[in-house]
Every structure is written in C-alpha cells, then in structure tokens.
# Entry
Amino acid sequence: MNAAVGAAAGGCGFVIDSRVPRTPGATTSSGEGMSILDIVRPYHDKLTAIRRDIHAHPELAFKEHRTAELVARHLEQLGIETHRGIGGTGVVGVIRGGRSLRAIGLRADMDALSITERNDFAHRSTVAGCMHACGHDGHTTMLLGAAEVLARRRDFDGTVYLIFQPAEEGEAGARVMIEDGLFERFPMEAVFGMHNWPGLPAGSFAVHSGAVMAGTDRFDIRVLGVGAHAAMPHLGVDPVPAAAALVQAAQTIVSRTLDPLDAAVVSITQFHAGEAYNVIPDRAELCGTVRSFSAPVQAGVEAALRRVCEGIASSFGVEVELEFRRSYPPTINTAAEAAVCAEIARAVAGSEHVSTGMRPSMGAEDFAFFLQHKPGAYVWIGNGPGEGGCTLHNPHYDFNDEVIPIGVAYWVELARRLLSEPR
Ligand code: NI
# Structure
C-alpha cells in the first residue's frame, strides 16, 4: 500500500482487495519489462493529492469553474491542447500520437451533489450542502492521470480526446456538450466512460455488453375534481379516490403490459391532496419516476401510463393531466467495444477480477447520450465494500484513492490498444 494513502485516511476504511494484484503478473504492451501499473504508480501520491483537493472543493452542475480550471491548467502544463467552455464548464484535452486519423474519446464527469458531507477527515467538503458523494472527483483525477501518462509517452497512433464533462447529476451535461458541437469539433470513432462502484472489490472491474444503466423518466399527474364540503360529497367530484385508483392501476403497467423478460420500474413517489379535515379538495397531485433498459420499453410505459390516466378520468369523472418528461436514456454498451474494455480490464487487474455477468443498475447515467451518437462502453471500477455508508450519494461516501492507479492504467491501456491496431 502506498504509504501516503493509508486505509485510515478515507471515510470508508478502505483497503484494496488483497486479491487484486498490486502488480499484475502479465507484462503489458508497455515494453521495457514494466507493467502498466509500474508506469502509473509513481503518479499515485500526486493524483491522490489532486483527488482530495477536488473532493474538498465540490461544485454543482454547470458551476464547476474551479474544477474545470484545475483540469485545464493541469492539461496545459503537460503541453496538451486544451479547449475550455465546451457545454458550459466542460473541458476537452487533445493528445495526438503518430499520424493516424483515428480518434477515441475518454470521459470523466466533474460535478458534485447537493448533500451535506458527514465525514470528518481532512479533505472533507469545505462547501456547505455540497459534496462529491458519487466519486466524480476520482473520475476526474483518474483521467488527469491518464492524460499525463499518455502525453508523456505518446506511444499510440491517433488522437485521444479527454472529455471532462459538467453536470452529470440530473442536468444532462453530456447532452449539452453534444449540442455544443463536441462530436463535430472533436470527431471520434468511439467514446468510453468509467464509474466507481461501491460493493465491487476495490480495483476490480465489471463490464456489461448491452444495457449497463437504466433510462429514467419523470412524470407529474394532476387529478382535477370539484371541491366540496366533506359532508356533502355528492355536490363535488372527489379527486382523492380517483388518484388512489390511479396509483393502484399504475402498478399493473409493469406486471400486465410489459414482456415479463423486460425489466422496468414505475414508482409513484409523491401524493399530495387537501389541507383540511372537512373539505374535499379540488385536486390531487402525483409525481413519480420510470426506469427501464430499452427505448421501446420506455415508450411502452409512457403509453400505458397515458391510457391509465385517460381511463381513470372517464371512470371517476375527473380531469387528469399527465406531464411525462424523458430524462436520461438507458446506457447501452456496444458489444464490440465492451469486449475490448473487458480485455483491457483483464490485462490491468487480472482476469479473475473482471466480471462480465453482473446485472445492470436501475440507476441512470448521462453517458447514455454519448452512446446514442457513438459506439462505446461505460464500465464500473470497484470502490471496495459499500459499508458504513460508503455508497453512492451517501453523506459518508468517499472515493477510494487506492484504485486510482488501476483506473489510470485502464485508460492508458485502452487508448494504446484501440489506437495501435489498423482498422
Ligand atoms: Ni456518478
């Protein structure tokens, strides 16, 4: 273990899984008899300091000014062509090697969450109500580490675009970067992402071929009746039983209208009506979310919810308004790129530390927007046991600095592998 990053330093008591090799037996294509981890490890202390600095200074969606400046300066100091202000606070670094016109993109997200940190270690958040509870500080740091190794060595043939993205948490920074011309200004044949995963042994990988994260939608439903005295319901149209029936009917969308082999969730998470004991309110309001793993299922759930609303309206004599908003599409890895990622993960972490059979997550991820435009894959890197509140979006969460070298090694090897073979 690196002396500078002892296990006690983190809020989650991390120790890298002893089964993950500190130095994999297999020498990679790095040459000189050194493994890629041997090459990356000297940067570990420096990168840990960067990661903790970012953790201490979290910034919310599209306000990542300090983080973006830190990223841009780091890239510029390495002599990397750097573009600021792509999609708001996004930064793109360009590293060229050889003469090939081939190009790939590697992406890290930079934003934090509106959570008050409950850790008390030295690098805890200095910003009230804001913290890096999803490890984007670690993602940004690992890509900065890869930038340094790739820029110093340039032992690949093509272009690596380093995409530092704002606003992953709910604000679709990926889509905003695309709308700002990301793929026109930086044409690439494929794009890759990585997210830390608590509960997966530290430094191991999970790679999915196909769906990895769910698509997510949000909806608001207004059930409009006619208010009345609670003792005289026949003089009004009560929206409460209609809304209650709507909640029940919505439970049949997944169970009765979808193919049982298609996964989806419909959750109604808010139900508001009335404010007095003796008044039948004139409206009830419902809110909720839908999760699914394919565009047809997403469309099918929306259509079914509209039918339920129309049916309830005519059954109960109320008006029902549905506002359905598509948020993030499902994140679907393309098979060929996922296969390469799994191969690289095996080379870096050892084949026994790479899972290709894990279930996808019902969480959502805006990397999905990149994959709507380009082939690519988004992988999970183990953050260690998700114990003591060390889970994503928890106030006790902290990124595991011990996995930094493995994540950096993965990025470097992926770029070198993809840009070394003729196509
Ligand atoms: Ni995240």
Remarks:
- Residues 275 and 281 are 8 Å apart (CA to CA).
- Residues 1-11, 13-30 have pLDDT under 50 and may be disordered.
- Residues 134, 136, 168, 195 surround nickel (II) ion (CB under 6 Å).
